[in-house]
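INFO  loader      accepted 1 record
INFO  loader      residues=124
INFO  predictor   begin
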Amino acid sequence: MLENYFPVLMFMLVGLGFGVAPVILGRLIAPYRPDAEKNSPYECGFEAFEDARMKFDVRYYLIAILFILFDLEIAFLFPWATVFQEFIAAGEVAWFVFGSVMVFLAVLVIGYIVEWKNGALDWE
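INFO  predictor   done
INFO  writer      dumping tokens
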């Protein structure tokens, strides 16, 4: 019974080896010469001038959420576009599928326009 799990154990050990071996080799082989510049925090190419726990502007998160929203839109549209030819061959189902995707896009466009009108995309 346990011999069935041997390939899984080997897979885990090899995967762990591939993950840990470069770290250990880097620690052993690479020169270790720390200085103030290497140990300083790096953010956007300039020195940090405030506390790292400062609050971000809410607009940053809003832009990130909008990016994810429209990124997911594309993730839904690619599979639809690849199988739409099959729906056309099926006949009357194609109009229903096309209409449902147009409703989906209309809702996203209306949301985009509302965000634009409310100034969510304006960055000062």
